[in-house]
Amino acid sequence: xxxxxxxxxxxxxxxxxxxxxxxxxxxxxxxxxxxxxxxxxxxxxxxxxxxxxxxxxxxxxxxxxxxxxxxxxxxxxxxxxxxxxxxxxxxxxxxxxxxxxxxxxxxxxxxxxxxxxxxxxxxxxxxxxxxxxxxxxxxxxxxxxxxxxxxxxxxxxxxxxxxxxxxxxxxxxxxxxxxxxxxxxxxxxxxxxxxxxxxxxxxxxxxxxxxxxxxxxxxxxxxxxxxxxxxxxxxxxxxxxxxxxxxxxxxxxxxxxxxxxxxxxxxxxxxxxxxxxxxxxxxxxxxxxxx
Length: 291
Description:
It is built from 6 helices and 8 strands. The chain has helices at 19-23, 140-173, 176-199, 212-243, 246-255, 257-289, and strands at 39-45, 50-52, 58-59, 64-75, 78-86, 93-99, 104-109, 111-113. The radius of gyration is 51 Å and the shape is elongated. 4% of the residues are buried.
């Protein structure tokens, strides 16, 4: 495994700088041996096939070299770089530059690029025509007809369409308050119809507007009715408890079976009537609060 730690000698002083400065070396090592000339040794891969100009051997695309990279100019704000490589088959040098204007590489010296342009006509295909190339001389009559047709289309089709869209926009956005009011009324009418359908109310019935005063009055009425209902239930329980105590009922059960049966029937009747009244009261107040 490669070690990543650095050795610091015993006489190392941090005031002298880093280890590279202490040893007189650059951080890029041997790649920066010509950095004072503006040249950086970098790995360069051939972007196309070339023929070496010295040994006339073919060098395939993708072959890599330790090239001397150097900035030689600018195209607007884009730098232009030159890559100078030594042929691996001879001692000749060739140079390739970047061309930002055409977004490609150009062989400058020492080699020539292999021409690999494919012509479809020579290979039994169809020619690719430049649809955006140079146009022929314009026909003044055709240009006039085109302008006339455009004006007629503008007058008869486009302008009326734009006017209709403008009127529609003004109609929908001219009075936002009235449109919002109509929307609120539609929502209220829909809620009233749902409430009438839930409780089986006639469609012609007009419901009152909901406000804070009506809500407070309904709450007071509901609280009063509930108190009255609870008081009545308590009084009934007390009367039933007083008239049908367990001691009396036990004595009557032993002496008079008919009286005991009658007392039970009366208790069941009172319970059924109280349950029906509870259901009616609940429906009434549910109608008041949730309509």
